[in-house]
Specification:
By secondary structure, the protein is α+β, with helices and mostly antiparallel strands. 19% of the residues lie in helices and 21% in strands. The protein has helices at residues 48-66, 111-115, and strands at residues 5-6, 21-22, 29-30, 34-35, 81-87, 94-100, 106-109. The longest helix has 19 residues, at 48-66. It binds zinc ion. Residues 7, 9, 12, 33, 45-47, 50 line the site of zinc ion.
């Protein structure tokens, strides 16, 4: 039971669902959900509601802590390459390529390059 994680939603225990109601008769309480894994927010939240509650409470402080964006980022021709693929014939016959989101230019990719998450032709941020 010690491998269970608690939902980090600050209001999780206030949502009245049967699975949150724990304890023996006469002293039941609604409790923060505990699971081996969660689907939301990097596996920290049991629901989007709980994720949103966390952001309402802590989001601004978190952004200030980790660094608030102070200048607009720019997507340029140099960093606008993304990987994509087309189905040539069927589900198992795909062609892989880079496409530039600004110029629309396409460049061929091998399937291995497509799957290599560190492979890029982008330069700069
Ligand atoms: Zn929750």
């Amino acid at each position: 039971m010690s491998n269970l994680k608690l939902c980090q939603g600050p209001e999780c225990h206030t949502y009245h669902t049967q699975d949150r109601l724990k304890g023996i008769k006469g002293s039941k309480t609604y409790q923060t959900r505990r699971r081996s894994s969660f689907y939301y927010g990097g596996s920290n939240f049991c629901s989007l509601n709980c994720q949103n509650d966390w952001f309402e409470t802590y989001g601004t402080r978190a952004i200030d802590h980790f660094g608030r964006l102070t200048e607009a980022k720019h997507l340029t021709e140099q960093n606008a390459w993304v990987k994509d693929f087309d189905y040539r014939g069927g589900l198992n016959d795909r062609s892989f390529y880079f496409v530039n989101k600004i110029t629309k230019e396409q460049r061929p990719l091998t399937e291995e390059q497509y799957r290599d998450t560190s492979y890029t032709i982008n330069t700069g941020e």
